[in-house]
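## retry 2 of 3
previous attempt timed out at serialization; input unchanged, resubmitting
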Amino acid sequence: MFTMLMILLLTFFISCLVMIISTILSKKTIMDREKNSPYECGFDPKSSARLPFSLRFFLIAVIFLIFDVEITLLLPIASTLNLTNIFSWFFTSITFLLILLMGLYYEWFQGALNWS
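## retry succeeded, writing output
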């Protein structure tokens, strides 16, 4: 019990020492207006909130969310292989991947049209 208490106190002392040293040696002495203000999607928070919003930024954000969520849907496909019928698993997986590839192709095609 005494050994555990000593290890706990030593760990606490070392962590406090590291935090104090990092605070002393840090270079955050200059307070900048831009660094202290919150970042709001590229808008200046000190100006009017009624500025027009970029539709392209919105579409990229939505696409990111869609493809971020699809990763959570793709990961369980491999683990369900042993639990289901192989035909059902294969058909579902291929259908899901084809839908994702069609969405990716559509976005790539729309992006190519908008850039030109």
